[in-house]
């Protein structure tokens, strides 16, 4: 009798959910109001970083497949949203499990008098564990670090006390009803308990909605462009609200004669559509005026450079660049092109007084990302940049403000954003993704993609022939593209036309006008790099060295009569 009236672990799980929902909402509110850490994201990022690379890759792969299958929108932003939802789910599950265990253990040790105290202690201990998690992963909390830590312990303690408090109230009903039962033979505790839980549910739901609602009101997630820094630009500081700075006529290939086939992706990616990949649920936020680039290790004396120094002491270099993520699947969307501005890296290092023993630089970031780059590579390639602008504007927060590196011919994983430290070292070592099983070199594989078979833009020739414009992009890192070929069904490979690229570091738009034929057809594309080397035809996934293979598209073309009517 006694035992059955104790709140079960199922009720514990329910209470866990009831308490954790407003807890998350209040954490969000504190985050929006005071820049305090948002627990679910920290937990999620921490779990992510401590999970073996294989598993992470599986999870990301499943996510990307789901996003592509259900057409959930542009892959990298949909993936971020999915991550954030998973983070909330993970925190809720954590609360549910803690609730179940807490109730189970308290039932076992048969105590309710001290359940508040025990709850508080458990909460505080979990809070302390979270401080470690916070220290390891958090890079978004703008509040003082000590304050954040106090907040974490305090919030979790209150969360724990809530478990204890609800537990003891639920047990009270059991006892009171026991007495009542003896007095008048009535079993009312279940009813009381239900009513109590409904009340708790109502209160926590109200708190959750209030907290989340207030936070959303305050939240202004428009990826504010950092404007605190004055860009020393003789032609005036770019207007951060102007959107894409570079208009079609300014592009270096404005005179190119080849028109892209209708439906080809923009050759110059609008900044807001540039893909984005990083290891944190939210990117680090850096104050551009306080930021310093710290240079240490095998140098005569450590240095600290400010952003203004970087921008004014060195001639800015402009480059049109395509970068791709190594996790970009064949024909995937994790590849984009914009204009990068920065300092030529080999000029920078001339001023650093590097020891002759130094062979590599370890570049590390505010989010604890790190990568190694060889000094030989930097010295021999004038195109390696320490970049501080994209599209003529200070780097956006999510894209690495204030400074990121550009290394031609390498996938994005080799190119840290939010750089804070550079250490000259005497040997190469594994960087962030390499330690998780990805490519050591991460050299871009030549790839080509069909963006469009523009059956609704058929071009009639003078001789009456009807041509379907087919088009897309081909990319070979810094190796350039010399030729693109298209195959329709089992026909011969036909040479496509190539548009002048924006630079030797960008993808190249191609087009092939194909003589219209109604019916179901397959279209394939392949590219040759600047040295005449054919891309790999082998169909291979992204891990560990990047995807390869021939992109193929099936399309059923209606007879012309029916498309015209
Ligand atoms: N500090 C830091 N730098 C980083 C990353 C990161 O998570 N943290 N991600 C890398 C990866 S995997 C890629 S593909 C590119 C993506 O740059 P973007 O998000 O600006 O397009 O940044 C690279 N640099
Ligand atoms: Mo990447």
Strand order of the biggest β-sheet:
2-1-10-5-6
Number of helices, counting only DSSP H or I runs of 4 residues or more: 11
Portion in helices: 25-40%
Count of the domains = 3
Largest sheet: 5 strands, mixed
Order of helices and strands: HHHHHHHEEHEEHEEHEEEEEEEEEEEEEH
Structural class: alpha+beta
Mean pLDDT: 87
Radius of gyration: 29 Å
Strand content: 15-25%
In whole angstroms, the N-to-C terminal distance is 79 Å
Ranges with pLDDT <50 over ≥5 residues? 220-243
The molecules bound to the chains, other than polymers, are: the ligand Nc1nc2c(c(=O)[nH]1)N[C@H]1C(S)=C(S)[C@@H](COP(=O)(O)O)O[C@H]1N2, molybdenum atom
Structure, explained:
- The chain has about 575 residues and is α+β, with helices and mostly antiparallel strands.
- Helix content is about 35%, strand content about 20%.
- It starts with 8 loop residues before the first helix and ends with a helix.
- Mean pLDDT is about 85; it is low at about 220-245.
- The structure holds ligand MTE and molybdenum atom (MO).
Short description:
With 565 residues, the chain is of the alpha+beta class. 36% of the residues lie in helices and 20% in strands. The longest helix has 40 residues, at 145-184.
Essential attributes:
binds molybdenum atom, 565 residues, Immunoglobulin-like, five-stranded mixed sheet, single chain, five-stranded antiparallel sheet, 11 helices, 20% strand, Sulfite Oxidase, Chain A, domain 2
